[in-house]
Input
Amino acid sequence: MGAAIAAIAKRRDFFSSMIMADIDEGRAKAAAERTGDSRFRGVKIDASDSASVAQFARDNGVTVVLNSADPRFVMPIFDAAFDAGCTYLDMAMSLPTPHPEKPYELTGVKLGDEQFAKAKDWEEKGLLAMVGLGVEPGLSDIFARYAADHLFSEIDEAGVRDGANLTVEGYRYAPGFSIWTTIEECLNPPVIWERDKGWFTTPPFSEPEIFMFPEGIGPVECVNVEHEEVLLIPRLIDCKRVTFKYGLGEDFINMLDVLHGVGLDSTTPVKVRGGEVSPRDVVVACLPDPATLGDKMKGRTSAGLWVTGKGKDGKPREVYLYHVVDNEECMALDGSQAVVWQTAINPVIGLELLASGVWSGVGILAPEAFDAVPFLDLLKGDYNSPWRIEER
Output
């Protein structure tokens, strides 16, 4: 993800330097060198060591920490940014814990709860933590703000719908994004929000529906999946229901069911030949790195928000606000596969809006807290990656 962010950011002039950090110093340096831009450099940092991250930020005059690591490292990086007095951005939020007794009815610790519990500290220190600014969450939340401000007088449902027709040559199972995160999202109890009930959960893969995706992708079966938007959108957007549904496909759902059934989704280490290893880490090691699949991948992916309710004229309205990217185009432009590139472009735009002062704030804020228009104008204009509205 960091390499894709750098490839996009190198075309912009809103920053003076960007430090690429990784536990693997060689990988960080390679990502920086590929830009051919002296503003980038790579260093070794252990993201799990919050004190080291904070000390590095202080020693190097870092003003913004952009977290593109997987969700296991959200809290140490989040806390390090606070300790160092930095602005913080991420693309995924702190991890949840299912309800101990009724996991498929009630929420336990929700996505982002651990971060939001520290909101007052960030406010009192005058610092901003912008959480969930990837594509989903991120652009989908910005679509929600735009719909509420410019398209609807009343919103019945704000439903994130994600689908693709991507294929990867030579692989039966080859996730386009972190398989560790995909397992976490898909096998945790999905969360739904309704005005009269608040947040509640269902069994995984509930409420299947066929959703028609635009620009040649076509019909894809989508199911409920746990995701940050359901926890973020209702905080600031007046609506009756919020959902997140992901087009997984029957084969992938069956594979996840098998992993869960034999315990290979577990993150609790087990003893193997005198050592200990997390079963989920074994699965990750057995599957290809999504960042290496771009030249084998074909097709398009759509991230968007389906909204129903009453338009500004008071009449019934149904729209799908969406952003579609083509894998071959992303590879030709930046050498990044479509799912990664579509995620990476959004925090870069967010950074630019913060640097210019168009967006500002203190505390822990999600993308819904900001004016959507400047972001969407940059996405479609200077960044040349159009978003669209489809009336339904």
